[in-house]
Each structure stands twice: as structure tokens, then as C-alpha cells.
Amino acid sequence: MSDVSELVVARSFSYPFEAELARGALEAAGIDASIRNANVVRIDWFLSNAVGGVCLMVPREELDRAREVLESQAEPAEDLGEAEVMRCPRCGGTATEMIHPPLGARWMAWIWVVLSVDAWFMLRRRRCEACGHTWKVGR
To answer: Which among 34, 44, 42, 48 is positioned nearest to 17, based on CA atoms?
Structure first.
């Protein structure tokens, strides 16, 4: 029998930085962890779903404890107060969503190249799901 433990996936992430943060939390709790597929996703992040995401690997015998640590990290801290929430200026609702600009990405890139203006920020708008009101956000 080998001294090396079998590694299993504790959690999968879309981005490498999320996995790095989770690995740091596990290592702070005394659990050895490694990351798989991070370089593939860094090279081409469209491959993240194809390779199963960026996987956080832990020894099989530490899996339950690792999941507990990861779940405790996901809970918001109660002493931080209420997080800033984007509210509708008309009805005060919190169910808002970002509206994508009407121009495609290609046109936005041309505006940026020709005019040296970041047009994405000029067109940022939000919509309230409750009342349908739209408004400009940001600068």
C-alpha cells in the first residue's frame, strides 16, 4: 500500500483566483490542497467548463473537513453590516439587473480604438425587475 493519499475534488471553480483563495483557506485550516486545470483555464478560459473547471484537490480522508471549511468561508460575516445593494430609484426594489449595451462587442471595440473612449462605461444601465424602470449607472 502506498503512503500517498488519493486526491479527490473538494470543489470546482470557474476561475483560478477563486481556487487559489479557497486553497489558502484550506491550508490555513491545516489541510493540504492542490489545484488542477488552473493553467489550462489561464491559457483559454473558454475551456473551463470543458475540463471540469479549476479543481481544488484534497486527500480523500480530509474531504469532509475540507468541505466544512469551504462552506464556512462562503458564509457572509455578520459583523460587516448590510452589504451595499443596488436599489431601484423609482420603487426601491433590490431585484435589479445589468442591461447589456445595444451595440455588439465589435462596435464597442471600434469606438474604443477610434475615439479612445471606453464606451462600455458610457452605456452601463440597470433595470428593475419589479417595476421595469431603467437608469444609468456609474460615472
So the answer is: 42
For 49-86, the pLDDT digits (tens) are: 888 889 999 999 999 999 999 988 765 555 444 546 67
| 32 has pLDDT over 50 | yes
Q: Look at residues 59, 67, 64 and name the one whose alpha carbon lies nearest to residue 5.
A: 59
One-letter identity of residue 21: L
pLDDT tens digits for range 119-139: 555 556 788 888 988 887 765
- Name the strands in the sheet holding 125-128, side by side, starting at the edge strand that comes first in the sequence: 96-99, 125-128, 134-136
Q: How long is the chain? A: 139
User: Which H or E run contains 43?
Assistant: helix 38-43
Q: What single DSSP character describes residue 95?
A: -
CA 4, 9, 15 angle in degrees (round to 5)? Answer: 125
pLDDT for residue 20? 92
CA dist 102 and 123 (Å) reads 8
The full set of domain ranges for the chain reads 7-75, 78-139
